[in-house]
Amino acid sequence: MNSRSAASIAARLTAAVALGTTIVLGASGCTFLTHQATTIEYPASDGVNVDATGGPVVVRNALIIATDDGSAGNLVAAFVNEGDETASVSIDVEGRRFTVRVPAKDAVSLGADEDPLLIEGLGVEPGATVEMLFRSGGEEADPVSVPVLDASLPSYADLAPDAE
What we know:
- By secondary structure, the protein is of the alpha+beta class.
- The chain folds into two domains: 3-39; 48-163, Immunoglobulin-like (Sandwich), CATH 2.60.40.
- 19% of the residues lie in helices and 35% in strands.
- Strands 1, 2, 3, 4, 5, 6, 7, 8 and 9 form a nine-stranded mixed sheet that branches.
- Strand 2 and strand 3 (72-81) form a beta hairpin.
- The termini are far apart.
- The model has no long low-confidence stretch (mean pLDDT 88).
C-alpha cells in the first residue's frame, strides 16, 4: 500500500467520523438545552399542593366541590403530618377558620377517609378559584388559590354539598 492510499483512507475515515459526530449532535442537541418534563413536580389531579404551611403538615390535592350557584362548597384535601407529634392545620377561607388535627406521621383525607369540610356561604362559583391559607405552625405561610369545581364529573358527584 502506498502512502497516497493510506492518506486517502485516513481522510475518508476522518470525514466519516466528523459526519457521524455531526449527525449525533444534530439529532440530540435539543436535549442538552431543554429541561426534561418528567422532572417537573406538579399536582397530578385538579387540586393544588401546599408545602409551605409553616409547620409539619403539608396539603395535597386541595380543591372545593361547590354547588352550581357557589353558595356552598366542600373542601376535599389530604393533610399529611410529616412531624413526630400530632399537629393541627388551620384553614382560613372567606373569613372563616377551620381546624383539622393530624396524627404524627399520618394523614387525614377529607372526602376519602373522612367527610369533606363544608364551607357554607362560600360565594364562589365553580370555575373560579378561592384564596385560602393553610397554617400548621408558627412560621409564615402564604395564601394559595384553590380551584372551585362543580360535581359534573362522576368522581366528584358524591362530594358536592347537596349529595351529603
